[in-house]
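Key idea: predict the complex, not the pieces.
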Amino acid sequence: MTVTTDRQERLREGLGHSAKRPDGIPKVRGSFAFSSDLQADGMVWGHILRSPHPHARIRSIDIGPALAVPGVHAVLTADDVPGDKTFGLEHADQPVFAHDVVMHIGEALAAVAADHPDTARRAARAIVVDYEELEPLVDAEAAITAEPIHPDGNVFAELVIRHGDPTAVGEVVVEGTYEVGMQDQAFMGPESGLAVPDGEGGVDLHMSTQWLHVDRDQVANCLGLSHDKVRMTLAGVGGAFGAREDVSMQVHLCLLALHTSRPVKMVFTREESFLGHVHRHPARMHYRHHSLRDGKLVKVEARIVLDGGAYASTSRPVLVNAACFAAGPYDVPNALIEGWAVRTNNPSCGAMRGFGAVQVCFAHEAQMDRLAAALGMDPVELRRRNAMKTGDRLITGQLIAGTAPVAALIDTCAAAPLPAEDPDPDPMALPGGAGRTADRGRVRRGVGFALGFKNLMYSAGFDDYSTARVRLENGVATVTCAAAEVGQGFVTLAQQIVREVLEVDEVVLAPAETASIGSAGSTSASRQTWMSGGAVERAALAVRARLDAGEQEPIEETYEHHHPPTSPLDADGQGDAHVSYIFAAHRAVVDVDLDLGLVRVVEIATSQDVGRVLNPVQVVGQIEGGIAQGVGLAVM
Amino acid sequence: MNGPVVLPQSIDETLASLQETPGATILAGGTDLMVAVNAGTHRPESVVSLARVSELRSWRRDGDDVVVGACVTYTEMEHGELAALVPALCQAARTIGSPQIRNAATIGGNLGTASPAGDTLPVLAALDAVIEIRGPAGTRSVPVLEFVTGVKKTVLEPGELVTAVRLPVLRGPQEFLKVGTRNAMVISVVMAALVVDLDGHTVRLGLGSVAPVPVRAREAEVFLEGQVDWAGVGNGRVRVADASAFAGFGELAATATAPIDDHRSTAAYRRHAVSVCARRAVERAFS
Amino acid sequence: MSETATFRLHVNGTERVVEGAWVGESLLYVLRERLGLPGAKNACEQGECGSCSVLLDGTLVCACLVLGASAAEREVVTVEGLPNGDGDLTDVQQAFIDEGAVQCGFCTPGLIVTVHDLLERNPSPSDLELREAISGNLCRCTGYGRILAAAQAVVAERSGSGRSQRETSA
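Result:
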């Protein structure tokens, strides 16, 4: 067994320390291979033809003019899909190529492969599509009862949560209607990938994505191939935030590769990216909060409608999440939550960081402010009075058995000193910024306070797991795990864990690919540290045990790590559906131009229960990055 | 180097190239053109790039004017002597895009694109700028308000090139205010450019993003000119007879607009924002 | 494809010839797909994000907005060309790693070039000047906190006032 002499150096890179990323050097050099950087000899370029209409019947598609463009190698449509014509995470309702009807602007109709990206784009535009435009269904509320726009109906999911006595009434009641618009994940690295046919009817796909194995399964099903004929390798991912959970170009790329017998590369433009992936669900929420005169919450009622857009994606679990967390991190004895996720001809919605808990957070916190005003109470005090704690129950009935230091989060966040008001601020630091619109006398500073929470890990009975292999040979540990590194720093953590457990310096990460190991699950729901980190840890511990028992290297162990089981929600929305929770308190200081309505966010202070900190700078990075995305949703 | 992209080294060579390839795309900073090329909405066949025409990249003083070459960039307008001579242009330049954009984008390009949201246009309107054009028929000068004729439309004829913008150097305060949906890197919702000419006793207000073309708020200007105590001009401090005149100026400015509802804002907000910005501009100028 | 363009660029100190390029190819496309220099990134190709930032004749620009052929005979410096001949990381690159300013890394090359350019022209920028200087570089992962810390660390180090404490308050 190898023990480094520089133990201090190694400990600095162990758990609890801000160990540096193993991919940091190539990333700052510009040599890290993102999916859009890939090259292959003989490579051709793919491009997708997209619908300009939100709802239309396709009378005919004439690919002849595209095939006639010099440099074009293939033009494919729905007829060229040999296997399943549709795919989808929860429900396979999304066509690889639209065939009879188009359900949203940007839906894929055809794909072209050509020797230059501009040629592929020109050829795609040469395809003649005869559309019969149909009336689009764009109102989510109306969609609930409207004529179905799809054979599977317009309602992806509906649920009710009945907690305690749904007929209870408070002494003070406030209500309000809240809307949150669509938000885009806007990761920096556009959707991109490279598909390489293996010459034997199979294909190797290098793709930036969040879950290799689930992509692989959908691709293989659509190609009509056994799963071992489609091998996926994670290419460098330029951020994800939920937008890469659903398949985007994977099937198209593989189809083009198999048809042309050439490697095919595709890169979405930014506009295509906005059209080509799922977004955060727009939400319309009507709330009623009941409390006693002293501020103790009696009941929370909410009616939530999520606009899921054209296809099912993950609308159901997003709705479940929204409903579970609809009342906020408070002790709420009674609740009645009704929710729908519906199909419209708007762009498809699915996972985006927060996964339903974001929309309801805006609503329940606005309600708490409204209630505080009605009670004549300080809004922070109202929250403190109702703060959730260990031993309380969620409105789904689940006991909060773990840490829930909500009161402490409120206290520490509220106690942070407020930023000083600059008596002579630089115009750039005022609302309006470089536009120099502000009159200092008409700028007022406001302070807002909010609490939020959501689950970690998947929920409601999903048997989630991750697989990792650790091999120790010649004093070097190799970790094989298909967990998608999207920037969050799992690669750093995997090294830290193995360094700690095996006390080795050199920890090598094997490529993340489906051919060498089982699923690591999705990079989402803040689960990879617990699940894939847990798998890596347990595999390493198993190696360690064999080492300690006197075995010689090489020693290899593979571990499939499951979390404790959860239950689905019953007909009343009750059940032990969640594994764990994260709680956060935020305080926002915002300057507002009273006449123009322009704002400048001066400071966001936060207190969060982050559990055990395994890498401080990476935790801070996640918090700061998440806050920036929230600020964007709020003010942009 | 031959091929579809030519790089002339003088204005004369540029005009000759435009004659040789009618319909060629003129390329200055590329910050508008290349967005369209990258998106596939503009397919260039032949391009005349101004990258090597150093004559267009300089500015000079000419009596009471500055003459700014068409390829002078926003960064150049933002700093140094030119910025001091035309403060409103400096302020406007700073609001355009990012440092990367400002290093490449040009005043000639802003004019050639003639977007209703073109950031220099309200300033040029307030200064009564004159656009110098050269073409096969020779040289001509067109006042900026006549140069821009509609949304993305100008009086430029085929084969013609904007070579320079002639601006007066005026003594007096200048202000440029731009409202956008965020604090930087933003296409304007409303722009107001105020120029006070202490010697000519004029107040000029150019407005942008509130009509298809840049406009002057003439009624507001005349109103305020009548309120100014120009006699106090000597020591550089100008007073206005009645402070309520500032609000009146703002209200009149709003009436000079013909704004629309679009994805960035509404006509009602734009009118409101113009009145606020115009009032604030004169409050600053006369404080 | 109609007429193609052939031209010569000077990239990172080396003469490179581009042949048979489609006339509409941006400098970014040429660097990434023809010259084997994928450091400059293609996050938007509209000049909004700065991920393609390079130096063109010493001036910071978006390579996606430069028509490749119009850069003929000009000097281009990409992130790959920043380190000294010995290949060590620059102090800016090292600071990005040390301060946790790299997550997915897609914005990183553009920011490295931009910060280098800023500090050449303004060795001790104020906080607002720093923010304005990087306002053309978007990052979706970090929220900019660690990026600003990295730039400030370089400023402190270069001015000889010693490395600022790199302790993250977590």
